[in-house]
Amino acid sequence: MIGDGSEVEINPNYYKKGLPIPSNRHPCRICGRPANYRTPFDPVTLKAEWLCPECYKEIAKQLDDLDDKPDEPKVKVITEYAGEDRITHMEKTISTGVRRGRDRESIYSEVLYDNEWMYNPRFTPMELQEQFDKLHTAALGTPEIQIGDIEAVISEGSGGKKSYQNHPEHGIILYTVRGSANGPIENVEYIFSYRIRSIERIENPADNIDVCYNIVFENVKKPSQRLRYDELTISQIASDIISSKSGVKNKQRLHEAISAIINEYEARELIKVSSRIPATGFFEDGNGALQFHEGKKLKLSLPKHNPKMAAHALEVLNDIM
Q1: What is the pLDDT of residues 236-254, one digit of tens each?
Q2: How many other CB atoms sit within 10 Å of the CB of residue 234?
Q3: Residue 11 and residue 39: Cα distance in Å, rounded?
Q4: Three-state SS string across the chain, please?
Q5: pLDDT tens digit string along 62-84?
Q6: Fewer CB near the last or first residue (10 Å), C or N of the chain?
Q7: Global confidence as pTM
Q8: Is the four-CA dihedral 95, 96, 101, 105 of positive or negative sign?
Q9: How far apart are CA 172 and CA 195, in angstroms?
């Protein structure tokens, strides 16, 4: 049965799982909900028919009841999240979306779907919006400050000049120029097809040597394609790019180029600097003030505030002191 009331015969054997999760772009032909099971694409129209997991499961079950065939397709049931697990799951969904460069609307659309079909009980619209705003802001961190192109000179003299550049059109390059009787001779060596879009330096107030970075790289040809690294050293970032990312033109120069460009930005004081201890707890900042930090590897699940228990705890603490 479809929405207009007409009868149709649907064989689940014609449908295969085309997407890992249901998509709003492909409504179910029966109920209109997001679907991820499809028929093969028609060679003429290049279109397919789609079913949501619930309708696919129901049709497969009915066929199984009629024919008693044990080898009918099995459908994975959507996981249900309750209580605090709903927030944990929502946080993971949002942080994954932000890390992959998805916009706010598309992430919120996925959270709306999860709330409708996976959360028990469902959040009210106001509760959902409040939780989403809080978790999305936390996933973004501080607003990203875009940095412009820059030149990090590595050698300069009578023989010419060499510099690494964070170029808006060519990515990370090695630029060489030297004089001649016919004028300057320029040469460009391409290193990485991404440019550095933003940098945050993170210092450990308990250890001056412990420094890491939050860096976002942007594909110069497709700006929507980005690589995000959080709280990693330059060596760790360069190693990951060399071993697993496309767009690398010169592996031997990549680490030196990224390091030189970042050093130049730091020397000009063009990047944000933050103090953060890599653990959960209290630490004293450079001004002698006590600060609390929650590390990524150990997040606290604090109980609900109880004024009576808090007052009693302070009395006990006072006795001890």
Answers
A1: 999 999 999 999 999 999 9
A2: 18
A3: 10
A4: CCCCCCCCCCCHHHCEECCCCCEEEEECCCCCCEECEECCCCCCCCCCCEECHHHHHHHHHHHHHHHCCCCCCCCCCCCCEECHHHHHHHHHHHHHHHHCCCCHHHHHHHHHHHHHHCEECCCCHHHHHHHHHHHHHHHHCCCCCCCCCCEEEEEEECCEEEEEEEECCCEEEEEEEECCCCCCEEEEEEEECEEEEEEEEEEECCEEEEEEEEEEEEECCCCCCEEEEEEECHHHHHHHHHHHCCCECCHHHHHHHHHHHHHHHHHCCCCEEEECCCCCEEEECCCCCEEEECCCCCCCCCCCCCHHHHHHHHHHHHHHC
A5: 666 545 444 444 444 456 888 88
A6: C
A7: 0.48
A8: negative
A9: 6
Q: Which two tokens stand for residue 225?
A: 């394609």
Residues in the chain, overall count: 321
Instruction: Using the structure block, give the residue that is written with the tokens 């002191």.
Output: 321
